[in-house]
Amino acid sequence: MKSRVLIITDRNRKIPFSSIISFYDLQMVPLEEAARYDISDYIMVIVDLCSEQGTEEAIHYIRQQVPHIGILVIQDFVKPFNRDLYQNVQGYGQFRVMAWKPALTDKLANLVQTIIHPEYPVIQSRVAIVLPLYNEESRFDNVLNFLGKLQMLIETSFVNVSVYFINDGSRDATQPLVEKFKKAYLQRTTYISHINFFSSLALEHNTRKAGTYIESLTSIDADMFVFVDADDSFHIDDIAKFLNIIKAGYYDIVVGTKDMTTENRPVSRRVMSFFKRLLTRPLLPYGVYDSQTGLKAFNHAAAQNILPHLNVSSGLAIDLEMLYLAKKLRFRVLQLPVICTDRDGSHVRIVHDSLQFMKTLLKLRFHHKSL
């Protein structure tokens, strides 16, 4: 029995799906009848609607039923990039948009195959998810919770992903706990392709975050890099959203902002963030006002070109330095709101780190004046 693909279509584009995707059992239905079908019976969904509102309704319905199912949206070839479509999509499955014209039948077939079988992609994209760690022993349960969610993301939607622990000179039992987790995972997994899901690197000295970014970009070979706090502060839905946008190819860098969405955030941190935004905004790319939220994604070109200019002395301001360099090097940057929960046990020293941040802020223009 062939695997089944659901196609929600108004048939206006007259795409010959049955001849292009002949190796699957296709069920083509109009939007108004989609609710009659159980999305979980299908391995992916194609949305081919000329109406933007209809497209958004279809996506919302699909991901309400099955959050991890892959979706391919068909749009007209001349239609401009719609970032709102990516921003508003829910769930953590693959989400791709294809600009259609009759000459692209092979591309359509390849995209369908890539979404259905990410373990055998036609166009392979290697993703590195980087987790900076520092003295996480007392809250390693948060790290384990987050790793469980990442494992679900990897195994259901983004197979060609590796997770890297970058230990920033921890002085507690963080590294032994990481090694214990990796050993337990290897004993559980039955797939050779899963052996390299989790890797680790350890720095000799604490660099206040900057070294973890520089070491990962130096040591890891990947097509996309995601930097995210390891303490289960962020949702995998947002990580999936960032990856889908980078894969679309319109933006080089996607950064999160938690200013309007953070839960459990102390007043002192809110005040500090407010003043940081005022001071740093002139240094940031157009449309970006928050450099410090701990979730960012870079394509290979951006990561490769920014790396040579980074300074380990930047400390916690490494995020600001990366975005300042992105502006100077004219990379395309998109900022999106993300859901975030501030966890207890933060290693940020408000007064000391704020002063160091200000010093770095003053040095940035001087360090990179030749760009």
From TrEMBL:
Signal peptide: none annotated. Keywords: Transferase. Gene3D superfamilies: Spore Coat Polysaccharide Biosynthesis Protein SpsA, Chain A. It holds the Pfam family Glycos_transf_2. GO terms for molecular function: transferase activity. InterPro entries: Glyco_trans_2-like, Nucleotide-diphossugar_trans. GO terms for biological process: protein N-linked glycosylation. The keyword Manganese does not apply. Residues 129-304 form the Glycosyltransferase 2-like domain. The keyword Thylakoid does not apply. This is Glycosyl transferase. It comes from Paenibacillus sambharensis. The lineage of its organism: Bacteria, Bacillati, Bacillota, Bacilli, Bacillales.
